[in-house]
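Purpose: get a first structural picture of the assembly so the mutagenesis plan has something to point at.
Setup: two entries, given in the order below. No constraints added.
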Amino acid sequence: MHFSRLTKFATGASLAFMLGSVAHAASVKQITGAGSSFAYPLYSAWADQYAKQTGVQLNYQSIGSGGGIRAIKSRTVDFGATDAPLKEKDLKKHSLVQFPTAMGGVIPTINVPGVKPGQMVLSGPVLADIFMGKITQWNAPAIKQLNPGLNLPNMRITVVHRSDGSGTTFIFTNYLAKVSPAWKKEVGFGKAVNWPSSGNVGGKGNEGVAAYVNRIRGSIGYNEYAYVTQNHMNYADMINRAGQRVAPTAANFASAAANADWKHAPGYYLMLTDQPGAKSWPITGATFLLVPAKPAQPERTKAVLKFFDWGYTQGRSIAEKLDYIPMPESVVKMIEATWHQDIHPTIWK
Amino acid sequence: MSANSLFASAAALRARRLAQGRRMDRLFRLATVLFAWGVLLVLGAIIVVLLVQAWPAFSRFGFGFFTSTAWNPVTENYGAASSILGTLVTAFIAIALAVPISFGIALFLTELSPRWLRRPIGIAVELLAGIPSIIYGIWGLFIFAPWFADNVQWRISDTLGNLPAIGPLFQGPPIGLGWLVAGLVLTIMIIPFIAAVMRDVFDVVPTTLKESAYAMGSTRWEVMRHIVLPYTSVGVIGGIMLGLGRALGETMAVTFVVGNAHDIHASLFMPGNTIASTIANEFTEATTVPHRSALIALGLILFIITFVVLALAKFLLLQVERGQGQKA
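Result (structure tokens, whole complex):
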């Protein structure tokens, strides 16, 4: 199994060509997928370009990660998409193969009078204390200590969180659970959690959180990177695991992915939060794909993998333009090796 | 052909027509019975499905499900108290404000308004009913809530918030989201329903009744209070119930402005939630059995609340009708 990716593709392509003339069923014109709304803009942009080049259409329903998992478990779609990865046990139980397709960052968005974007810096533990309601004022000593030069107002902090279940919340709370033992014990992490502070506000979707943060003076929330850049929101920098101050940039998200230990993550169950590396943005996450390990219709799963192989290679610039972070090439190589290892060999014939 | 046989054939024709008519009657009766029972069947089926799917939550949390304010998807611990209370409070605020306003609108349209103004105002009220609730939600979130927070809320906090007994109801950060704003948006949404029904039933009061009262020297208010309202009480209560039903179940608009926190506070200014908003927020991402089951249990509770409210309304109507019977 140590072919290079290219030879594998060459063999695959020539096999497909040879078989194509014999078995007409092998030509799949439409693939279906459902799930993550975070990944929807990316997949639909990829699908648009891909259809122009190959004529293969993607029908993707953006119904949320939970819906995507349900749909692929019942095999009503060719693939499911989720922002919260399934554990290996779950993958085995439902005979699924999982891999990441793209990344994004989650960014603390703030509304503090007199503080401009990127001027404030927060650390993981302080962020956790704010969201737990333990730090309630913007001029609290813990925040002052991190921001000695900043003129912080004596203002109550209003915490804004997602009210709907969301992969963004999963990534954000996963990070807080990693850096704050108190958070891990009292709140934990998930797509929806029991938000601890009293008087906090829940907004529906990225736009709901953004609307509240923009409007409520003294508020702090969290949004996806694409949402922050496209709407020019005010945000805070973070201090990462290496103790460095980092800004939320594409390069820093990619650093988190490149430094992550994918090799020792069965089923790619790996959260990119709090990764090592001097430049790694600490609240980074990937969005994942689920395909059947023993597909009933191998040619359909194969069409799905072909689509995402195209996305990994030729779809990079599209992803970047939409403020998604493409997976590093080293990780893509690993993923494509996984396909050959874990998906039933019938699809490669 | 003799006259007799002519009569005979005419009678036979009539008999045939009658028989045919009876057959059609029976068929029609059967069809309507089926439709009527169909409603009951669907209702029963909904209850059964809700019960079955909500059962894991009820058996896991027991009666505590109704009294617990916990809502923790991480530890799979759910309680319905904050959602139930939020639903009742927001619907109560909406009804308390919408009923007098709707009454005023209907009164104006049927008794006071110049004839040329009736149609435009009537149409405007009906248009309000046609606006989709998501539009109310967006309007509430981006326009009404900020305006309310900046101009009204702190004034209320500074004045009413300091009063002894009711003060705690009006304290809290001026963020413009919470039970009160959700109740206000609901008020605007249900006014058209209640006002339109009230106007229509006020219109059917016989003119002679009102004229007699005026002839006895009654004021407009007295005519409304003692003639029109008693005459139309059944219809008025029906209209209020229609509005209350919508307020209890309204989802999107409330989700936008209620603040979405699984908390119970004394203050109407604090973020809360309702049954409908909780379901709308969490259903798509509820992957585990307890989570889904808890949400469906919430749906069942909403179903029961609505049912109880409608039953109470029916009971109230019966009392009113009996009272009228005694008077007459």
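Residues 1-25 of chain A have pLDDT under 50 and may be disordered.
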